[in-house]
Amino acid sequence: MARMGRLGRADIDPRFESDVLKYPVKLNVDACLQCGVCGGSCPVAFSMDYTPRELVELVKLGLKEKALSCRAIWICTGCNVCSDRCPEDVNPSEILNSLRALAFKSGFKVPEMFLKMMENLLSYGWIYEVDEFTNEDRADRGLPQLKPPSLDSLKKMMEATWPRGD
């Protein structure tokens, strides 16, 4: 993480790790050994400014501004490979979810495309609208039709972590 530059006491937020851990999923930040399996497994790590391993370290160090302003938290695809392969059950994928939620709540810049995906999730249950054309195409391929998921539980979860700031 040499690209961080020089850090001072003002860069450290001692409450940052506890803020990240408030996310409503089991997170195990202190168990991270910094082995690098998560970053080595991540299919999009090549385009991130910080790998999942480095983001966990930023959380542990209390470097809130660095963690919440980086582009890596928005590049993460949520594939969960990092969490699946973590030998210590740290759950880096959910840590990145927590960082996205904190960035949103704290007023950090959220990419427009990500906001559109969240709106689509609340409207359709998917990050894009599944229309008749999509289902007809799926039928032609011998795939089952996509039916909208229950939006009630999805909306409750989204409102808990992604409140709309009108």
Please specify the SSE layout and strand pairing.
Blueprint: H1 16-21, H2 37-41, H3 52-61, H4 64-69, H5 72-75, H6 81-85, H7 92-105, H8 112-124, H9 132-140, H10 151-161
Helix pairs in contact: 3-7, 8-10
Describe this structure in words.
This protein has helices spanning 16-21, 37-41, 52-61, 64-69, 72-75, 81-85, 92-105, 112-124, 132-140, 151-161. The N and C termini lie far apart (36 Å). It is built from 10 helices and no strands. The mean pLDDT is 84. The chain has 2 domains: 8-105, Alpha-helical ferredoxin (Fumarate Reductase Iron-sulfur Protein, Chain B, domain 2, Orthogonal Bundle); 112-161, no CATH class. Helix content is 50%, strand content 0%.
